[in-house]
Design brief:
mainly alpha; 2 helices; rod-shaped
Length: about 40
């Protein structure tokens, strides 16, 4: 939440967008790394 307020000062970025941008690539990496191990 604090990151969303401070990242671009005049505009408040919703927490969901920040978590999607950070968590999305991590989730895809986790998904593909587990698939290669099978």
């Amino acid at each position: 939440d604090t990151l969303g307020r401070c990242l671009i000062a005049p505009v408040e970025i919703p927490t969901g967008i920040i978590s999607a941008l950070l968590g999305g690539p991590f989730f895809l990496w986790l998904l593909f790394s587990k698939r290669e191990g099978l």
